[in-house]
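Lab notebook: predicted structure, single chain.

Context: the supervisor wants predicted structures on file for every construct in the current expression panel, including those that have not yet been purified. This is the next one on the list. No modifications to the sequence; it matches the entry in the shared construct table.
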Amino acid sequence: MKKIKVSAPGKLMLFGEHAVVYDRPCLVTAVDQRLKATVEITDDNMFCLDAPEVDIAGYQKPMDCLGTGEIPSGAKFVEFAVKNFIEKYPLTYGVKVTTASDFSSQFGFGSSSASTVCVLKALSELSGKKLDNKKLFDLSYKTVLDIQGKGSGFDVAAAIYGGTLYFVTGGKVIEPLTINEISLVIGYTGIKADTVTIMASVFEKMKAQPERVERIYDAIEKLTEDAKIKMLEGDWERVGKFMDFNQEYLRDLGVSSEKLEALILAAKHAGALGAKLSGAGGGDCMIALVTNDTRKFVESAIEKAGGQIMHVKPNAKGVRVEV
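Prediction complete. Output recorded below exactly as produced.
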């Protein structure tokens, strides 16, 4: 039997939420909490999955039945990843996957995309196909679309490439940025956001008020482009202002929440250079840009406002085989 262990990072969106689903750019960074997958080749032609972090234990089905029947939500991404791989690169054996995570799937750090990337990377190594990053992205992105129907793929790109990326919808552009350090405080609202529902509500707004929503997306695109330049220049005060502007547009889209606003306001009052929600909105996490002098004050203010500080570091390494 052959076995391999692969890990991939989670992600945090810095700029460009929602607009990135509609052919605009975003800025995303990989975080150092990782999802790990051990993938084993078996001789019984069965797919098996143990994923305790999403309450999946002993789940199995024949390899030729992947993607059919009742699939638990916690198994979907891994199952479809295996299905998509064997449709492109047929296997004559079974596959057993065991996952473990540094972070809870509830935090919105992209655990589904990270698990997809881990499994496809492992299969590409075990089968000898050794897919390059772009081929790995394309197959991972297809898996996400198979399940969600819509999505930009930025979380997949972050899991594969790591670091901080300038990314355009569907991987049209995946540009790694050379940024040594991003000084962020991450606050968790305690509320698990339903990304699919939030995206659907934004889509309905777009249908009802297409010109207004397009204007917001155009403004977010301009902010993202400007923020990229200022991040590369190290002008963090300006980047902070852009974060504030981005939050205003997300508020206009209706994806912020009372709890997110409370944490953002607390961070700003405590001296953050800028603060905004990160991700789909509705809950999950907010981010605040800080200096070394203000970090402690901002963390304390977020906690007093009812947030939980997530101790993660940006700019993490992308997917890798663990020795």
